[in-house]
Amino acid sequence: MKILIAGGAGFIGSTIASACLDNGIQPVVLDNLATGRREFTESRTFYRGDIADGELIDRIFSEHPDLHAVIDCAALIVVPDSVADPLGYYRENVAKGIEFIGHLVRNNCRRLLFSSSASIYQSDPATFAVDEDSPVETLSPYARTKAVFETVLKDISDSGALNVVSLRYFNPIGADPELRSGLQIRKPTHALGKMIDVHHTGETFTITGTDWPTRDGSGIRDYIHVWDLAAAHIETVRRFDDVTRPAPYRVINLGTGNGTTVRELIAAFETVTGRALPTTETGPRPGDAAGAYTRSHLAAELLGWKPQLSLEDGIRDSLRWYDRRDHVIGTAD
Questions:
Q1: Rounded CA gap, 19 and 319, in Å?
Q2: 206-236: string of b/e by CB count within 10 Å (b at 16+)?
Q3: DSSP letter string over 234-247?
Q4: Is CB count within 10 Å lower at the N or C end of the chain?
Q5: Cα torsion 297, 191, 186, 53: sign
Q6: Coil, helix or strand for 193?
Q7: In a structure prediction context, what are the per-residue pLDDT tens digits for the chain, which is 333 residues long?
Q8: How far is 182 from 185, CA to CA, in rounded Å?
Q9: What's 56's DSSP letter?
Q10: Are strands 171-173 and 223-225 parallel, antiparallel or unpaired?
């Protein structure tokens, strides 16, 4: 089996590509390297270019007529950046995405796995748990680009042009356990990445938002190991036709089902490292939300998939990748 992975040189896309290789699936990687890393494409079939480049997409399908499906991980994902540059986010995540779908349909692609986000959900204020039928409430331009593009995909799939499984990710952490790739961004904006930075520099970690209506006032998230996330994509590829047989568009949450607050994440981090993490508190960043976790069992029912790795595993592998990162991608930005 052969799969095209758009955005396959990024954190999640490269991990999915590694999981494909480990499961006898050949990944074909497409990435413009705006945020992805060429190092993550070594020993893999790689095309450098943009998803909106029709001639390039045509060439990929011409050279790989046996492509079974496409996984679309190509997107900008940083919430504060989307607040500062909504035009750029709509251009990259929506306008170019629509161009990409047109190129796929023209090349008779029938199977698309879309990397969506749980940030589109309106969470239950009593529990912060959501499922695939929970209402949508987008609080940042990034989240709105995902929600808008899902609407586009559903309309296109309802027309019969292609079938789509939209996988709504919660909060990926960790790294490929073999450390072939990991988070390539040197100054991450998410909580665990910042914890790791200040752990190594001796600085103070800032809890952004302490008045959310959660059990301890800090934001709540569903932290899923990226290797578990990759495994879910493998199962979706394998079961794609069965999953989309009742309807051409299917939404599936990918999370652990456990909500972890920022303060609880700090406690787990301290357990793994054996060191206290100094903290300070401030207000939420633009576009921040209280958060959510999945209460859905649909992934288990449809994909036969359940997460196998713990929160501590994700912290541990993130720390291992931090120590390995510069050996893989160098020290230059």
A1: 20
A2: ebbbbebebeebbbbbbbbbbbbbbbbbbbb
A3: HHHHHHHHHHHSS-
A4: C
A5: positive
A6: helix
A7: 999 999 999 999 999 999 999 999 999 999 999 999 999 999 999 999 999 999 999 999 999 999 999 999 999 999 989 999 999 999 999 999 999 999 999 999 999 999 999 999 998 888 999 999 999 999 999 999 999 999 999 999 999 999 999 999 999 999 999 999 999 988 888 899 999 999 999 999 999 999 999 999 999 999 999 999 999 999 999 999 999 998 999 999 999 999 999 999 999 999 999 999 999 999 998 888 889 999 999 999 999 999 999 999 999 999 999 999 999 998 765
A8: 9
A9: H
A10: parallel
How far is 87 from 97, CA to CA, in rounded Å? 14
Any residues with CB less than 8 A from the CB of 254 and at least 6 apart, and which? 167, 168, 169, 170, 224, 229, 232, 294, 299
Report yes or no: 163 and 244 within 8 Å, Cβ to Cβ: yes
In the three-class reduction of DSSP (H, G, I as helix; E, B as strand; rest coil), residue 302 is classed as helix
- DSSP notation for 84-133: H-HHHHHIIIIIHHHHHHHHHHHTT--EEEEEEEGGGB---TTT-EE-TT
Asked whether the whole model's pTM tops 0.90, one would answer yes
Q: What is the chain's length?
A: 333
User: Max CA-CA distance within the chain?
Assistant: 56
Token pair 């995540």 in the structure block, residue: 93
Residues marked as catalytic:
142
Amino acid identity of residue 58, one-letter, is D
